[in-house]
User: What shape does this take?
Amino acid sequence: MKIIDGKLIAVEIQNKLKLRIDELKKKNITPGLGIILVGNDPASEIYVRNKMRVCSELGVNAVLCRFNEENTEEEIIKQIEEFNQNEEIDGILVQSPLPSKFAEEKIISHVSPLKDVDGFGIYNLGALLSNQEKIIAATPLGILKMLEHENIRIEGSHVVVVGAGLIVGRPMAVLLLNRGATVTLAHSKTQNLKEITRQADILIVAIGDARFITDEYVKDGAVVIDVGTNRVDGKLYGDVDFLSVAPKTSYITPVPGGVGPMTIIMLIQNVVDACERKRDENGSKN
Ligand code: NAP
Assistant: This one.
């Protein structure tokens, strides 16, 4: 069994990104990320702070716009439109979840597809589904990078993704389908889940239920990717019961230190990609 060290892989990617950002800076270009944070959800505050910290370490200009529950949808959309027009902003992220009074999908639909570095907009999701991938959501992209880093075979493998959420499960399933995996996408209404997960060569779990997946759900020698982040009594747990599952696996990601660190760095990579694409397009126009 090998533990896949997400922190280490993220640092490798971070070092490569730093070189690309330094190259851009030599041409007086600084990648920019516009962040919209609405309300004061403590977890969102931490996620945004971490994203801004990594941006600052790498030399990406992060601009945070805060809104509260008293603001209107129109005010948030106006800020998104401003970011869309702003030449210094290459990527826009609307930190999810928004307070329930706001229509999240409607708000996100205003983000330009070229700057939708979260990959949650309908254009980028449609591009993924039609196997014409453009911007891919950071968490599934990070998981793909981890599998590739460890040379884990995707083509022809049976991947079971448990959890069909829009941020992780659905895009993950399609991303691996696009690479020739046989994919089963399970969710809360799936019958006989254990029988299905026990067939997985690669089992990816994103449900948000601490230590739900125990050794009975896992085939000997499987690769297990644990996306869950669940806080119980102040401690962080994945969706996988690491202690019982790890000995059965060939590879497994820990929580913390697995998928989490990859997510932030892939977001920044999406910003740098968007910045370079814009530069290339501007260059070809001149
Ligand atoms: P979500 O949108 O709420 O989706 C959860 C999915 O899990 C749904 O499809 C749900 O089924 C399914 N589900 C729930 N309980 C289940 C069960 N017992 N058996 C089978 N399926 C079940 O959640 P999400 O945004 O994808 O997040 C999932 C987890 O990943 C959370 O812990 C979140 O914090 C974590 N996460 C981590 C990162 C990271 O960077 N590490 C990034 C994003 C999310 P239905 O569709 O039938 O409701």
Q: What stands out?
A: Residues 139, 162-165, 167-169, 186-190, 193, 206-209, 212, 227-230, 259-260, 263 surround NAP (CB under 6 Å). The CA atoms of residues 230 and 237 lie 5 Å apart. The chain has a mean pLDDT of 97.
